[in-house]
Amino acid sequence: SIMPATLSAISSGARSGILFKGGAHLENLSHVKAIAFDKTGTLTRGKPEVTDIIIRKGLNRDSLLKVSASIESRSNHPLARAVVRYVQNEQIPFSPPDHLEDVAGWGVKGTIDQKEWKIGKAAFVGKEEADAFANGASLVFAEDGKTTIFVADHEGIAAVIALKDIIRDETKQALKILQDEGIFTIMLTGDSEKTAKAIAAETALGSYIAQCLPEHKVNHVKDLLEKYGTVAMVGDGINDAPALATASVGIAMGEGSDVALETADVVLMKNDLPKIAEAIKLSRKMQRIVK
Ligand code: ADP
Ligand code: MG
């Protein structure tokens, strides 16, 4: 049966927007020594905006944007939604692709009028060719904390699109409170090394690991478990769900994907990162009463 102290901690959590799915998670949270964070949608708002576009010579800008929006219109990725919003703002009409394949952690493949297109990270469209096409531009973008994606057709790279996601106002403060409590903070992101480095520096994160595929996030959480014993993982995406399930405590952003919300042990109802420190305080207080 559930202890009165546990019940009272769960209900006071709920009142301040922290949903605990059970008493055991409170107990685990009280022992947390390290917290891993996803980047996009967790530390950042997850609503990136297109900032720069470089198009292959000889290609028409409007038709390139039309194709890009068409393909991305069938993906739920925040980057995909940003491309679609950008093209809608330019009032360029587009229709859904004939076929689409979403390759989690890499990008999307689509067919329009029997022509195949790929949109995604450099390694997805061909790293060497992508680097040659960007000719240093993606490095400059990354140093600004921007994410670069590539559009490719059967002839090669067709365009580079840079997007910037804004760091949540409360991220820096939330991380600082946790670090002051002696908790190690680390970001696990699918984004590139340079972009990750820029975001980590801006938010004063303890550490970061870039270019994580969903299964890499799981392995890094396992490493953290070995090193720190009790570890929380905070995320919002489908790609974070396996890592949320692996951590001692999985914490989901309330506006995250359904899979993340279902998998998590704790849900931050308003995406409010400082509530993590509050949840830990609550759990420690409960532990003192129970003991
Ligand atoms: P994060 O951990 O930052 O949320 P993801 O694992 O979702 O990142 O994606 C990793 C990378 O794969 C992105 O930074 C992007 O380069 C590429 N990518 C994934 N899906 C898409 C898409 N629909 N359109 C363009 N690029 C994508
Ligand atoms: Mg995310």
From TrEMBL:
It comes from Domibacillus aminovorans. It is found in: Cell membrane. The chain holds residues 296 to 586 of 635 of the full protein. This is ATPase. Belongs to the cation transport ATPase (P-type) (TC 3.A.3) family. Type IB subfamily.
